[in-house]
Specification:
single chain, eight-stranded mixed β-sheet
Length: 716
């Protein structure tokens, strides 16, 4: 018989004191131990208590087995250093070793121990501070062993027409297996002092090959395009590397959030003056089945938001969605992809999760030309994972998809396999003449996404990381094949978002405007909350007047126009599954956008938005969407980036013209004792206007309107 007793957080010792009295105190009237009836009816009470703190998706190990555990302890009013030192001292007295690494959140500290659950129960006062126990994650990365190509003559010819990047150019920093910085195609874009490493690795040299392959894609894209061209190649960004993983020297089980943090700190100290996109292609198989935050994903959210200190930078992180493994399972495409969730740390709200799609369906090699490709063009790559099994409250992942190659069926046994013609050509690790190889999967897609981010930064070096993320997602589109697979109706729409995110980014759209498709970018900050008496309430909303030329819209009148809106911001995480209720939120704050409806006055619009800001944002009922949005407010409010498309007549848009950004609830508001209601929240807003008419010139009209406003402001 088993019974579970609920004990309020922090009151575990009261329950356990009953057993202390049983051991050491007798009832003076009966002479029997106190609490005898309760105590003698229960065995293994301490193990049962440990079990109640288990929040891992995997089954709890046997009590006597030594394993690596994440110990989540509750924060108190003491300093973080005192709390960490206090736990370590208690653990050491129980004969348990702890590591020097820790991750600190507003209400949690996570430490790593190697012990058994039975031994863990001997830690003095454990249940007074314990919040959760999870298995420590050991990340995985998929490496491909494809035949190298000997094209040294092509490489030398390419180098002749390649202009290296400036020393101050933006960078892609690879958190991977290191980089072979001496590769002739890479050496011009990476400095030796920017090829770093974290323990247990002894240097930043790539001995596995994966990091070098990803570096080639991040710098050039697929090399096939350049080697089949004679055009000049002007590199606008650089490479950096921090080695965090190696097959040859496997990492000890550790807190990979701290490893990631240490890696970022190292490269930022080595080169503090450049904008960089972090390319993380090391992932874990476990801990991502339902979309709940892990210590690693929450650490990445905090690192993106610069939550570790007031002067910490904001960071842009691209994370690979993870691949379908083993390779033989890909023959069950696409059903297998829907049942394999993206890997840890793709739960991170602030990171750009990158899945893989493919356009590669042509096999030119006559030896294998009779093989059948698995995926059709413009659809999901056989390697790519999805979040279709996640709880509806968590963000849509991946955020975007990029080329990750295709697989084909080997006729002899029916298994899936790689082919060079269905992969991406890139740089190969090695010092011989074979310096090209092929690669693919979601790691390759992530390297390409990081390249896009760096290229946007090379043109607009002052943009925030939040804005780069917004532009990538804002430029993304679903292919016709994706729309055919998941039509625009409720259940299919959700499946499309959890398979492809917002689609495939378009670099041209992300970097420039044209006459009939103009884009506006706003970087702002607001204070979401303030204190009114003893209550914390929402404070600021921002109203943005859209600079659309009414004269042009009036001429179009009933012609269709589309307005795409993307709102991007970074939340500060507050992880901890145990005890979550409505007001114990993961997000520090939430922001939303809305547009004034045709015929609605600005005052009426402001009153409606004020009412929306006070509502419970956890309400999952789908409201009637009076405007013609592709997704609608219910779908677009997941996570910390929100993107949607309004389609209607030019006349309706001309009578709208005002967009609001406003706050909704989060732990900054709900956890008022932390005083985070005093913080400002910055955001990036990207709005574009498009029409099919090539004769319309929105851009020139908007430019004249903005120039007039600026000149008037200067004169005043």
């Amino acid at each position: 018989m088993m019974a579970t007793v609920f004990i309020p957080v922090g009151k575990e010792s009261i329950f356990l004191n009953a057993f202390e009295r049983y051991c050491f105190e007798d009832d003076p009237r009966s002479g029997k131990p106190k609490e005898k009836k309760l105590t003698e009816s229960i065995n293994h009470i301490r193990l049962a208590t440990i079990r109640s703190f288990w929040t891992d998706n995997h089954d709890m190990p046997k009590a006597v087995d030594d394993r690596n555990y994440e110990i989540w302890i509750r924060r108190s009013n003491n300093s973080r250093d005192d709390e960490i030192a206090g736990f370590k001292a208690r653990a050491n007295r129980a004969g348990i070793n702890t590591t020097d690494r820790s991750i600190v959140f507003p209400e949690r500290i996570i430490l790593l121990v190697t012990t058994s659950l039975e031994k863990l129960t001997q830690v003095e006062g454990l249940f007074e501070i314990l919040a959760e126990i999870r298995l420590a994650r050991i990340p995985n990365s998929e490496f491909l062993d494809l035949a190298p190509l000997d094209h040294i003559d092509f490489i030398n010819e390419l180098l002749i027409r390649t202009t290296p990047p400036p020393a101050t150019a933006p960078a892609v920093c690879h958190l991977d297996t290191g980089i072979q910085a001496g590769h002739p195609l890479l050496t011009r874009a990476i400095d030796a002092q920017h090829a770093l490493y974290v323990l247990p690795h002894r240097n930043g040299v790539d001995v596995d090959g994966h990091g070098t392959e990803m570096a080639g894609l991040a710098l050039y894209g697929c090399l096939n395009e350049h080697l089949n061209s004679t055009d000049p190649v002007i590199l606008g960004h650089r490479l950096e590397s921090v080695k965090i993983f190696s097959i040859q020297r496997a990492n000890d089980p550790d807190l990979y959030g701290e490893i990631t943090s240490q890696s970022m700190s190292q490269i930022e100290i080595a080169s503090s003056s450049v904008q960089r996109a972090f390319c993380l292609t090391v992932t874990s198989n476990d801990g991502c089945e339902e979309g709940l935050p892990s210590s690693w994903s929450a650490a990445i959210d905090g690192l993106c938001a610069g939550a570790e200190s007031e002067d910490a930078p904001r960071r842009l992180v691209c994370v690979s969605a993870g691949n379908i493994e083993p390779l033989t399972e890909r023959i069950n495409y696409p059903s297998i992809n829907a049942h394999r969730p993206v890997k840890d740390p793709n739960q991170a709200w602030n990171a750009i999760s990158v899945g893989a799609m493919t356009q590669k369906t042509t096999i030119n090699d006559p030896v294998v030309q009779h093989w059948n490709t698995i995926a059709e063009a413009d659809s999901l790559s056989p390697s790519s994972r999805t979040s279709t099994l996640w709880n509806i409250t968590w963000p849509f992942k991946p955020d975007i998809v990029m080329e990750g190659g295709n697989n084909a069926i080997y006729p002899a046994n029916g298994d899936a396999d790689f082919l060079d013609d269905l992969s991406l050509l890139t740089t190969r690790m090695g010092t011989g003449t074979a310096q090209l190889t092929t690669t693919g999967d979601t790691s390759a897609a992530t390297a390409l996404a990081s390249r896009y981010a760096a290229l946007i930064w090379s043109k607009y070096p002052k943009l925030w990381p939040e804005t780069i993320r917004a532009l990538l997602i804002h430029s993304a589109r679903w292919t016709d094949k994706m729309m055919e697979e998941f039509p625009d109706e409720k259940r299919k729409k959700v499946a499309r978002l959890r398979t492809y995110g917002y689609g495939v980014p378009n670099l041209t759209k992300a970097m420039s405007s044209v006459g009939n498709a103009a884009t506006m970018v706003i970087e702002e900050s607001l204070r979401p909350y303030h204190k009114v008496g003893s209550e914390i309430k929402t404070k600021h909303m921002h109203l943005h007047e859209l600079p659309w030329p009414n004269s042009v819209l009036t001429q179009l009148f009933d012609a269709d126009v589309t307005m795409r809106v993307t709102l991007s911001y970074f939340i500060e995480p507050n992880p901890g599954e145990r005890g979550w209720i409505r007001k114990h939120r993961y997000q520090s704050h939430g922001l939303r956008f809305d547009v004034k409806r045709p015929g609605e006055t600005t005052a009426e619009f402001q009153a409606r938005i004020s009412a929306e800001a006070q509502k419970d944002d956890d309400n999952e009922s789908s409201p009637a969407d009076e405007q013609k949005w592709t997704l609608g407010s219910w779908y677009r409010k997941k996570g910390s980036v929100h993107s949607d498309v309004w389609t209607g007549t030019a006349a309706d848009l001309a009578s709208s013209g005002v967009l609001a950004v406003y706050p909704v609830s989060g732990w900054w508001k709900e956890r008022k004792h932390l005083n985070c209601w005093e913080k400002d929240a910055r955001y990036s807003l990207v709005v574009s206007l498009e029409t099919d008419s090539e004769e319309v010139d929105f851009y020139t009209e908007i430019e004249l309107k903005i120039k007039s406003v600026i000149e008037t402001h200067i004169e005043s």
